[in-house]
């Protein structure tokens, strides 16, 4: 399904302030000039997570850690398979100066397999709820990172502006993903406070996506999609269904643009860079426990022209609302 992307506007987010916290059992980082070993575990193959990985490596390169010179990267991709994920994190455990986990399931599996090697995560919505850190300001263990926590209130406000006459809204996500569940609950609460009816459909695997989304599209006037690995992995399928049904959806990151009318969310490359900057601090001797988790600094609106035409909404209107 073809589409054009438009990026407009930016939204400032509050940044966290670092506070010191005690941590034990972390490995010593390699000194400057030594070869640094970094393990990377990516939960699934889709644009948002891959963009975060690229941003992470760019931050290392900017700090002087370059592959082929003084940096060795052991990159593993679980392709969304839990069995693969477990095997891969065990292969990384105890073998690197720093490990990097992309997405909540990857970070949880990595911490379970290795709680001593300092590690950085990204594309995690709520690391406290996921059991990765004690708090955003003081992680308190072997992990820190950058989050993709979305301004759900801002998203719902934007969605209601785009489809002001809609009365019934759908929410679709994978019920086994902590990050998705957090956003879905918040979105439901906010929509109901506005007097809207909410229908929620969830899945636990990609096999059930087509049936669930088809059913949801027949019951609602608009759909909210939280940041979700299953949604991102099946964006094309979701987009085909919603295009045929002419149901507008809003996604939480640009990786799912082909499934939606528009997206309003986090710049995954940027949070990958943030994670890389934290990894650099660790490699230079700081402890993960002492480094506050970083929050997104910018967000943008992207519009799917093909979907806009199908549902009869002017793309320019959405772009103006996003400014």
Your description of this structure?
With 323 residues, the chain is α/β, with parallel strands linked by helices. The protein is built from eleven helices and eleven strands. It has helices spanning 47-62, 82-92, 104-113, 152-162, 178-193, 209-217, 229-233, 235-245, 268-283, 305-311, 315-321, and strands at residues 36-42, 71-77, 98-102, 119-124, 143-147, 168-174, 197-203, 222-225, 249-251, 262-266, 299-303. The chain has a six-stranded mixed β-sheet with strand order 7-6-8-9-10-11, sandwiched between helices. It has a five-stranded parallel β-sheet with strand order 2-1-3-4-5, sandwiched between helices. Helix 2 (82-92) packs across helix 3 (104-113). It is elongated. The two termini are 27 Å apart. The relative contact order is 0.20. The model is unreliable at 1-32 (pLDDT under 50).
Q: How would you write the strand order of the largest sheet?
A: 7-6-8-9-10-11
Alpha carbon gap, first and last residue = 27 Å
Proportion of helical residues: 25-40%
- Oligomeric state, counting identical vs distinct chains: single chain
SSE sequence, one letter per element: EHEHEHEEHEHEHEHHEEHEHH
As a whole number of angstroms, the C-alpha radius of gyration is 20 Å
The number of distinct helices, counting runs of at least 4 residues, comes to 11
Net shape: elongated
Concise description?
Helices cover 37% and strands 19% of the residues. With 323 residues, it is of the alpha/beta class. Helix 1 packs parallel to helix 9 and helix 6 packs parallel to helix 8.
């Amino acid at each position: 399904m073809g589409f054009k992307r438009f990026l407009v506007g930016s939204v400032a987010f509050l940044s966290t302030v670092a506070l010191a916290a005690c941590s034990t059992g972390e490995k010593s980082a390699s000194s400057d000039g030594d070869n640094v070993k970094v393990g990377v575990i990516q939960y699934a193959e889709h644009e948002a997570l891959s963009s975060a990985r690229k941003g992470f490596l760019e931050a290392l390169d900017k700090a002087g850690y370059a592959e082929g010179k003084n940096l060795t990267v052991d990159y593993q991709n679980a392709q969304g398979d839990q069995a693969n994920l477990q095997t891969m994190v065990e292969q990384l455990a105890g073998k690197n100066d720093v490990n990097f986990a992309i997405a909540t399931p990857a970070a949880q599996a990595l911490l379970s397999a290795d709680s001593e090697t300092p590690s950085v995560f990204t594309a995690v919505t709520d690391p406290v709820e996921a059991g990765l850190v004690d708090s955003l300001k003081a992680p308190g263990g072997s992990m820190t990172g950058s989050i993709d926590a979305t301004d759900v209130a801002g998203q719902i406000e934007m969605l209601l502006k785009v489809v002001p006459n809609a009365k019934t809204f759908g929410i679709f996500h994978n019920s086994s993903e902590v990050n998705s569940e957090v956003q879905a609950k918040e979105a439901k609460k906010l929509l109901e406070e506005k007097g809207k009816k909410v229908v929620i459909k969830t899945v636990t695997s990609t096999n059930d996506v087509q049936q669930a989304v088809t059913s949801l599209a027949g019951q609602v006037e608009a759909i909210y999609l939280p940041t979700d690995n299953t949604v991102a992995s099946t964006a094309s399928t979701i987009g085909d269904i919603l295009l045929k049904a002419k149901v507008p959806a809003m996604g939480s990151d640009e990786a799912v643009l082909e499934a939606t009318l528009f997206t309003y969310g986090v710049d995954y490359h940027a949070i990958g860079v943030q994670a890389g900057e934290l990894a650099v601090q660790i490699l230079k001797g700081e402890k993960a426990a002492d480094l506050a988790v970083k929050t997104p600094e910018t967000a943008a609106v992207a519009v799917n022209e093909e979907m806009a035409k199908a549902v009869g909404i002017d793309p320019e209107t959405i772009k103006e609302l996003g400014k």
